[in-house]
Amino acid sequence: MMSIWSQAKELAAQTPGDRNRYVDFLRAVSILVVITGHWLIVALYYRDGSLTMGDVLVMQPNTQWLTWLFQVMPIFFIVGGYANAVSLESARRREIDYAGWLAGRLNRLVTPLLVLLLGWALVAAILYVSGVSGDVTRLASRAALIPTWFLAIYIMVVVLAPATYIAWRRWGFASFWALAAIGALVDLAFFAADFQLMGWSNYFWIWLSVHHLGYAWRDGRMGTPARLLTYSALSLLVLGLLVFKGPYPFAMVGSPDEGLSNSLPPKITLLMLGIFQFGLLLAIEGPMRRLLSGIRIWAATVLINSMIMTLYLWHLTVMVIIVGLAYLAGGLGLGVEPGGGDWWATRPIWIAVLYAALLPVALLLSPFERRARTANASVPAAVRLVGGAMLLCLGVALLARFGFGSAPLPRLDIAAFLMVVAGAAISGLLPGFK
Question: Domain count of the chain?
Answer without folding.
Answer: 1
